[in-house]
Amino acid sequence: MLTIHAAPLVLPVGAAAVVDGAVAVDGDRIAALGPYEEVAAAHPAARVRRWPGLLAPGLRQDRARELLTRCYHPDPREADELGELPLWGEDFERIAVTMDATRRAGSVRRGLQRMLRHGTTHVAGPFGADDPALRTAVSRSGLVVVRVAPPPAPVRQGVPGLDPFAAGGDLAGTAHGPLTVGGRADLAVFDVPDEAALYGGGPRPCVATVLAGRLVHRAR
């Protein structure tokens, strides 16, 4: 079924922003993009999902391998003991000593799920033959693996962030690519008023993530 995702602001990246914009999704592809009134008129039978804030391309997580292999993502049932944030460094090493394959797989799965909650649709690879369990988990998540230049330095200090913007990049540098008609429907929606609000230390709640046309995260 064709779905229209509408938001007060659509940022396609590489093209002008669209106020009161919309993206029509047919299967895993973008069927139309533009002002909501025009998109809705062209697709009168489409289901409409209205979102607050701004709609943008899905984001790319360049630290995915480190976040999945050098961090532990606590189970909600462990929150009282371990908290909710990824554990790394000495905390990770202490857990890793006794972590069996089942517990590691659960951590990886939760890490992938939490990436989706931050608008991530693409992750920097590769995830090769040296770790088949990790490669399988990433494949099953539906996240797209892309090859990018190595980051300038691994995560060594500070709490590793699942938020792709934590690295300090702008939307053009953090998005997986532009939204284009005929392109794959990988979208992220943030409850912020404009692009500037995506940066800095303020909250930037991701209210929806669409992966290949499927709504895989919804906060409201």
What would your notes on this structure say?
This protein is an alpha/beta fold and 220 residues long. 25% of the residues lie in helices and 26% in strands. It is built from 7 helices and 11 strands. The strands form 2 sheets. Strands 1, 2, 3, 4, 5, 9, 10 and 11 form an 8-stranded mixed β-sheet that branches. The protein has a 3-stranded parallel β-sheet with strand order 6-7-8, with no helix packed on it. Strand 10 and strand 11 form a beta hairpin. Helix 5 (101-116) packs parallel to helix 6. The radius of gyration is 18 Å and the shape is elongated. The two termini are 21 Å apart. Residues 152-156 have low confidence and may be disordered.
Strand % is: 25-35%
Query: On the 0-100 scale, what is the average pLDDT?
Result: 91
Low-confidence runs of at least 5 consecutive residues: 152-156
Query: Structural class of the secondary structure composition?
Result: alpha/beta
Order of helices and strands: EEEHEEEHHHHEHEHEEE
Principal-axes geometry comes out as elongated
The tally of helices reads 7
Compute the CA-based radius of gyration: 18 Å
List the helices and strands and how they pair.
Elements: E1 3-10, E2 18-26, E3 29-35, H1 36-42, E4 47-50, E5 54-57, E6 59-61, H2 64-69, H3 79-82, H4 89-96, H5 101-116, E7 120-124, H6 132-141, E8 144-146, H7 171-174, E9 187-190, E10 206-211, E11 214-218
Parallel strand pairs: 1-4, 1-5, 6-7, 7-8
Antiparallel strand pairs: 1-2, 2-3, 5-9, 9-10, 10-11
